[in-house]
Amino acid sequence: xxxxxxxxxxxxxxxxxxxxxxxxxxxxxxxxxxxxxxxxxxxxxxxxxxxxxxxxxxxxxxxxxxxxxxxxxxxxxxxxxxxxxxxxxxxxxxxxxxxxxxxxxxxxxxxxxxxxxxxxxxxxxxxxxxxxxxxxxxxxxxxxxxxxxxxxxxxxxxxxxxxxxxxxxxxxxxxxxxxxxxxxxxxxxxxxxxxxx
Length: 197
Hints:
Number of domains: 2
Low-confidence stretches: none
Strand content: 25-35%
Distance between the termini: 35 Å
Helix content: 40-55%
CATH topology of the largest domain: Immunoglobulin-like
CATH architecture of the largest domain: Sandwich
Number of helices: 3
Shape: elongated
Structural class: alpha+beta
């Protein structure tokens, strides 16, 4: 998705430049390009937000239910350990903040994996929970009850911390690009509507 957002950014900047072309042979092509860029951008963002907000069951996935039994709200992440030929690729996901006595459900693609880690944060940087889980049977959903503050492996939890930091950094970067795209989209829309009058 990052590449598509960057392409939208470039097209939006080019559309802003083309808004200066108001007469001559290229004026109609410039206007057509600007309209096409707006339609494409709005379509991509609409699809992306609907896909992100719709929670659905993932095909061929293992359901993971994380229950917070601790007296404080924790922010949970799950790291899926993909293991194709021992060239491990770790896939981090934010499960969300879970209040005491509440749960969240996440679906993990376990085609090339048989292990996942759960990381819990109190606040933004205070890692208070880390557990490592194997999946012997991928036909049975997983239920993890977080009953106490544990760190099953200091070495793996440090690795998990770095993966979560990298995941959050990528999300912040993506958020900045999306905000820039929205700003350019708004400017292009205003200029297009204003020139039509």
